[in-house]
Request: fold
Amino acid sequence: MHEFKYRNNQLYCENVLVGRLAKTFGTPLYIYSYHTLIDHYLKLKSAFSKINPLICYSVKANSNLSILKALIAKGAGLDIVSGGELFRAQKAACPAGKIVYASVGKTDKEIFAAISKGILFFNVESLAELKNINRIARGLNKITRVAIRINPDVEAKTHKYISTGKLTNKFGIDLDSAYKILLLRTKFRNLNICGLHIHIGSQITQSAPFVEAIKKVSNFIQRLKVKGIVLEYLNIGGGLGIIYDHEAPQTAQLYADEIIPLLKKTGLKIIMEPGRFIVGNAGILVVKVLYIKHTPKKKFIIVDGGMNDLIRPALYCAYHNIWPLVKNAKVEKADVVGPICESGDFLAKERLMAKVKEGDYLAVMSTGAYGFSMSSNYNSRPRAAEVMVAKDKVLVIRKRESCEDLIRNEII
Ligand code: LLP
Reply:
């Protein structure tokens, strides 16, 4: 469900004409629907109400402060992966006790900051990192909570770049090594190893890989109990897939129905880290058609947004629907490409889509997650503006960057 719909053949975000936003704020422009965002968060929350997990929204999916604030106001915590995201979490006034921190490469400075702020716990990805956090906590004279990120060696059945739960991936610690670490847990005097974490990948559309991973971890938890090792938290990560094209992902309710019995059995407090599920279909990227170009082989629709604004098609060959702002029954096959000097700069290839002309706008759908947050200044292009719509209300939540912003930190 999302709040981007046609009324009288014109595309609206909630009660606001998308065309009006494009004209007012210029393009490329990210537009978010507040009610879609909150609806997705609440869907997950209610599907899991029986076990009342702490939902730590994954900041990397879309880290705009207004998005974070909106979710925090509804009770969400945050999943962070850097000092920068910790900074954002604080700016959005997220209670430290609702922040979990993953990443295979946390620096001393980042660890120091997170311990000092008193985050809920670190998701630790290697023995070396565990030792380092222990050392830094000792220096601060603190005991800090950590969860061991388990690599369950499960095939997530998703794009290989975003699959994280196989032993060939850099993430987490294998079960045997984790077991050894947990047996020696009292050696880490400044750590309270209080939980386990798994995150097997992203855009996972079937529940089977999740179930397999949770089963493995839950057996592991039993094995630990036998040794008298009792934990407090199980963080089951994010990864829930959404509809981009014709996927039929498991709904939040189906996902919950499958895994709640397994989770209950662990007796642990559950944490989840969804990103895409919450924000993916809550955002669109609006671009303007600059030129139509015919070559002997193809038709190109050249738009003013490119791979610096949305890198998913170039990086993963990801599919995003492209809708006209005004419905049009005539269709044509074309490549939708950006202005960047690379042939990988496309938003759609050989796409059968509504016929457009120069000056028209197009909406690149389902771009709320990993859209703006992965954008860059490549080709010295200022990054897009972001606006949030709630019913009739429109708020600019990030100004368009200027050329001055591009060179702000440069020194001649
Ligand atoms: N937790 C951890 C530890 C993660 O690494 C991630 C995502 C999440 C949670 C949130 O996953 P989600 O619920 O959004 O699937 N740039 C890629 C996706 C990369 C995901 C990275 N980790 C894309 O555009 O598809």
